[in-house]
Amino acid sequence: MKTTMQPLTFAEMTVGEIVADDYRTSRIFEKYGIDFCCGGKTTISTACREKGISETVLFDEIANIKKEAAERSSQYGSWEIPFLTDYIINVHHTYLKDNLAKIAANARKIAGVHGKHHPEVIEIASIFEKIAADMTIHLKEEEEVFFPALKRLDGFIKSSLTPDAKDVETVRSVLSQLGHEHDEIGEAVHRIRHLAKSFEVPDDVCPTFRVTYLELNEFEDDLHKHVHLENNILFPKADKILQAL
């Protein structure tokens, strides 16, 4: 997004397009509670209407943040598919593999200890248990099927060679599946935040309760960026390859 654009053009853009162009703008959308990852296809005009925000105010805040010097390392939209997929695996998949089981165990623990007085944590533990199970399958599908096939297609396109028809079909079918799974996980995470009252820790709880809410908040932050990189940057790149074929 260029800061010289007219507000009408800005209003017609999607939230995902703006964050894909400059990830720093995600801070503005988070400030106003606008979902930029799973809700990335929402237009600015729709997002502002739903949140009761002035389009002009949002435009000015985004324009101001874009005046700051951008770090080259955060310009994710310019990354090539092989580098982007490797980054997602090494950073976000690694985080999930290291933390899903631990967070799920802590959520079960506080549900057992505090569920009587804070029944919301029982539902939170159940929701996160399903998230952990679904994410484990999701990561395996990406690492073993989708990413390798997409990398091969990208290589064929760049080399002007004819791609394997099986890879084309794999990318086309799995792309739709992954997008649907992102939506389901996103809804589950929104539900956890609602139940946890934005992770506000009650006064009468143990340290494990506090740690678990911090972990859940951190998980949500990581997921937002993870899903953004795929929904708003990687998947559109995959769509372009399919269209080119």
What does the secondary structure layout of this molecule look like, with pairings?
Elements: H1 7-12, H2 15-21, H3 26-31, H4 44-51, H5 55-66, H6 81-114, H7 120-158, H8 165-195, H9 207-244
Helix pairs in contact: 2-9, 6-7, 6-9, 7-8, 8-9
Structure write-up:
This protein has 245 residues and is an all-alpha fold. The protein has 9 helices and no strands. It folds into 2 domains: 7-74, SP0561-like; 79-244, no CATH class. The protein has helices spanning 7-12, 15-21, 26-31, 44-51, 55-66, 81-114, 120-158, 165-195, 207-244. The longest helix is centred in the middle third of the chain and has 39 residues, at 120-158.
Quick structural overview:
The protein has 245 residues and is mostly helical. 74% of the residues lie in helices and 0% in strands. The model is unreliable at 1-8 (pLDDT under 50).
Regions with little confidence, pLDDT below 50 for 5+ residues: 1-8
Estimate nothing, just give the exact number of structural domains: 2
Number of helices: 9
Judged by helices, strands and strand pairing, the structural class is: mainly alpha
Q: What proportion of the residues form beta strands (DSSP E)?
A: under 5%
What's the story with the biggest beta sheet? none
Give the integer mean of the pLDDT values: 91
Q: Terminal Cα separation, in Å?
A: 28 Å
Radius of gyration: 20 Å
Using the alpha-carbon principal axes, give the shape: globular
Helix content: over 70%
Number of strands: 0
Strand-and-helix sequence, N→C?
A: HHHHHHHHH
